[in-house]
Write a structure and sequence with these properties.
By secondary structure, the protein is an alpha/beta fold. It has one domain: Rossmann fold, CATH 3.40.50.150. The strands form 2 sheets. It has a 7-stranded mixed beta sheet, sandwiched between helices. Helix 5 crosses helix 6. It is globular and about 45 Å long. The N and C termini lie far apart (39 Å). The C terminus is likely disordered. It binds S-adenosylmethionine (SAM). The site of S-adenosylmethionine (SAM) has 22 residues, from loops.
Length: 239
């Protein structure tokens, strides 16, 4: 499990970070835009409409409504350890109780067109994350959207998580799990990497050059308004 118990993610948690006007970090409009981007990017890679979505660490299942608005026939399944979320929304929104590193124990499809881990991977202890990525890769039939922030990023929102590691560390874990980054926090698996062109795949990861980490940290720090908002939110880019 993560460093926090499932009881941490109770009604008060979701009221604070999803509904409180001061603490909420993502509006319904921002969520809809994120969902639309991820869905359409996945469909571009697949070359057809997405018909199945697995949302791991789904919380209250708030990706379901914007997904259904765009693809009414999509089969949405959420997985989350929160007793509150599953008891309250499980039947209505298709959520089941479970952890990312124990997907094998759940009655899931063998693969999904789109697997989503939004605003949840940063909460996990390293061993859970490592095991979880392998399980996510095994269920990814098309594209995985794996939102994860590193120590090179800047955060606001609920940042009570284990200290983020360097981007290079996460890249290695993804690589070991058989996940190929294609940009914008999206991945394809080794089995389906030919769906994207060679230049869209960001592997092999560049070897860090001497002082490379420090260089990138400085770049990120001087990047002005690119502060990352946690819990699945990135500060909206201006069009
Ligand atoms: C900030 S919420 C994100 C919820 C949702 N994905 C969203 O985008 O709104 C973090 C979620 O991660 C879930 N979580 C924590 N540990 C987990 C684990 N080991 N496996 C799956 N989900 C986990 C929590 O229960 C919580 O619902």
């Amino acid at each position: 499990m993560s460093g926090r118990s499932p009881e941490h993610y109770d009604k008060a948690y979701f009221d604070k970070w999803y509904r409180h006007p001061t603490h909420r970090v993502k509006s319904p409009a921002e969520l809809s835009r994120q969902v639309a981007f991820v869905l359409r990017a996945a469909e571009f890679v697949l070359g057809r409409p997405v018909s199945t979505v697995l949302d791991v660490g789904c919380g209250e299942g708030n990706w379901r409504a914007p997904l259904k608005a765009l693809r009414p026939r999509v089969a949405y399944t959420g997985v989350d350890p929160s007793t509150y979320a599953v008891e309250r929304f499980g039947a209505r929104r298709g959520l089941m109780q479970g952890s990312i590193d124990a997907l094998d124990s759940l009655p899931l499809r063998s693969a999904y067109d789109l697997v989503v881990c939004c605003g949840m991977l940063n909460y996990l202890a390293a061993d859970v994350l490592t095991r979880g990525l392998t399980q996510v890769a095994a269920r990814t039939g098309g594209v995985a959207y794996l939102e994860l922030f590193t120590r090179e990023d800047r955060f606001e929102g609920d940042t009570q998580w284990p200290p983020p590691r360097a981007a290079a560390w996460y890249r290695e874990r993804m690589h070991e799990a058989g996940l190929w980054p294609i940009g914008m926090q999206m991945y394809v698996t080794t089995a389906s990497r030919e769906r994207v062109s060679a230049l869209e795949r960001l592997y092999p990861p560049p070897r860090p050059r001497r002082h490379g980490a420090r260089f990138w940290t400085r770049c990120a720090r001087s990047a002005g308004p690119k502060t990352v908002r946690t819990r699945c939110a990135v500060r909206p880019r201006r069009w």
